[in-house]
């Protein structure tokens, strides 16, 4: 496929999403959410395209896309690991769990996503499962009562599962 | 196809009740977020596979006792099994469902006394509670509207729509004295009254399900465990102020709540409890769900409205208040999930009943999410005014692992930290605000002596600083400076001047910020300064962390007896703090060490430790 064809394919899906939600600004957040679910991030050219298609200034679209924590303008990994560092989790030692996961997937420096786009590891401030603190989620699946060791085992399982594919 | 009359509704209620009665024996498997994470879905599947025909097996919302999950409740025998796994199901089916006996090992055993409890109502965690708003959570299948209706669900709405005028509804709410459960504690009736009086062709009611407070999950549990109650409360609010459209704004992190609410809405429309011309009146009502996108500040009401409109969720100055100019400039009422979930009970049982619970000026019950270093974590509901001691020790079962109580953080980032001296304080709006804390959404995090209160203050300031929307200077710059100072203190680099500056900044930020985030962000700092000042002084003056938490005051040491001189640590240290010859003990130069811990992780012989 040529780059042009690829772009058109991308935009066709975006067009469908816009059709479902309508062109009002109120639809912008749900549209961005659905686009992100499709691509796992918000590619810049798609944001520009949405701005044109919805007749909303690009500054507004980018403004909204950068305001909310859920949106990412950079590609995220296949597995999105979110480590809770809310109060309940913090006082039950969530930090070592986070550090262990980062070490396990090989993240260093300020990076949150592995170069092979397999893992993104983030912290969040409460997943609402505080009774089981410390808590992590992997692509929305909740794992409670984490320890650094247990978290490492979960990551190992994912790595193995991927290796088998 | 809306319900045409109260009679038609009454017929539907009878049908639902009969259906529920026919399922006399029931097994309820908790499918709340906590229990699902612990494997309750497998338990549910196993029950479906093995169960005898006469027994209805359903999932339920969170029972509150998440720590002990997965939970299985058997009715009408009132048996509660805790920590159930799929492997236990066969035994439960045989012993309890067939032979009518209990499986003792699965009952709740008190961790200290060892006493065994058979049913929910005997367990201390439950027996000191009064569940009103949470009455159905854990008792019904949230995905089945008939179960809600069978327990008098939508009865209050039917009455509010068909029998009462909007003014009468507001009257009842005013008389009940219900105060908003989202944090501020503003009287709900007054809020409705303002929106009712605003003149406009279109009005809106909004349910605030953003629940951004770390450590709070009551709204999540209600939306997941009893979604119809939220919808019913919202519809009553709509009827009261004259709105035909309601929005439920749910935070992005709660996909299960979104799914359960969507399903509940579909069912309510199908049976005619939402739609046009409800109960043969000219009142029409429907609900739209909006998913948040991960911004704590969107819980603030003007920011939330901006977010629904598709803009950046930033607060704006008030007035104008949303009651006059809200969503798209129209009069709008915003209420918290728990507030709305309390409304049906008030409309059904009356203002007087509600006033009889709780305390003067603080009527009713309040849910608390009790977490942290407490034996029983979970979700509870108690009359307003129960003391902190009762909640932590009677219901929460005291501290974990025989530790000493040190502090309770209540009300999340807007709230404060209370010390052991305040254990007898009543948990209500007025008493808590007197000591500089807040009910907030009801998050209650218990801390033991292993917690450093300065570090906790730093933690909250970090939260406030990263969640500040940046619109106004005192909040944006002030929280950043406060965080810097707190980092200096825990890092052992602060002077008494810094402390004075911190205190001064706290008041400036509190008094000059635009919205509640900035106005309350200094509370954790101010309360820890008030009740745990000696810990700040210990860090600054004595260079020590009394709780032994802050790494700046610890040092990495090599035990010469264990060190084999393999040089691994020396090669790992990023700042060259380690020296030593091959095969002889190494040493760390403390004046150079950056306390990164890399050497400890690298040592294959466990010779390096932190003390
Ligand atoms: C920064 C900030 C975050 C808030 N977050 C929430 C929230 O998550 N849920 C909520 O119900 N109220 C939240 N509030 C309070 C709401 O602005 C509002 O007072 C409340 O939803 C009103 O409902 P109530 O009167 O029923 O309590 C927040 C306020 C501020 C300033
Ligand atoms: S106080 Fe903070 S969060 Fe609120 S408007 Fe100002 S900068 Fe934004
Ligand atoms: S803690 Fe870090 S800086 Fe200190 S000696 Fe060990 S490796 Fe070096
Ligand atoms: S890594 Fe451990 S055993 Fe090796 S030199 Fe360092 S302290 Fe000694
Ligand atoms: S604080 Fe971690 S889930 Fe709530
Ligand atoms: S999730 Fe099952 S008791 Fe809370």
What does this structure look like?
- The complex is a heterodimer of chains A (165) and B (611).
- Helix content of chain A is 52%, strand content 11%.
- With 165 residues, chain A is of the alpha+beta class.
- In chain A, β3 and β4 form a beta hairpin.
- The model of chain A has no long low-confidence stretch (mean pLDDT 90).
- In chain B, the strands form seven sheets. In chain B, strands 14-13-17-15-16 form a five-stranded mixed sheet. Chain B has a four-stranded mixed sheet with strand order 2-1-3-4, with helices on one face. A four-stranded parallel sheet of chain B has the order 9-8-7-10, with helices on both faces.
- The interface between A and B is large, with 41 and 53 residues.
- One iron/sulfur cluster (SF4) binds next to α19 and α21 of chain B.
Topology of helices and strands:
The complex is a heterodimer of chains A (165) and B (611).
Chain A: H1 3-21, H2 28-39, H3 44-54, H4 58-67, E1 79-84, H5 87-91, H6 95-105, E2 119-124, E3 136-138, E4 141-143, H7 148-164
Parallel strand pairs in A: 1-2
Antiparallel strand pairs in A: 1-3, 3-4
Helix pairs in contact in A: 1-2, 1-3, 3-4, 6-7
Chain B: H1 6-22, E1 26-30, H2 33-37, H3 40-50, E2 56-60, E3 72-75, E4 79-81, H4 89-98, E5 108-109, E6 116-117, H5 124-127, H6 145-150, H7 155-162, H8 166-176, H9 188-197, E7 204-209, H10 218-225, H11 227-241, E8 245-250, H12 255-270, E9 286-291, H13 301-308, E10 332-336, H14 337-349, H15 351-355, E11 358-359, E12 362-363, E13 365-372, E14 378-383, H16 388-395, E15 405-410, E16 416-419, H17 429-434, E17 443-448, H18 453-467, H19 473-490, H20 496-512, H21 516-520, H22 523-531, H23 533-540, E18 556-558, H24 568-572, E19 578-579, E20 587-588, H25 598-602, E21 608-610
Parallel strand pairs in B: 1-2, 7-8, 7-10, 8-9, 13-17
Antiparallel strand pairs in B: 1-3, 3-4, 5-6, 11-12, 13-14, 15-16, 15-17, 18-21, 19-20
Helix pairs in contact in B: 7-11, 7-14, 8-9, 8-11, 10-11, 10-12, 11-14, 18-19, 19-20
The structure holds flavin mononucleotide (FMN), iron/sulfur cluster (SF4) (3 copies) and FE2/S2 (inorganic) cluster (FES) (2 copies).
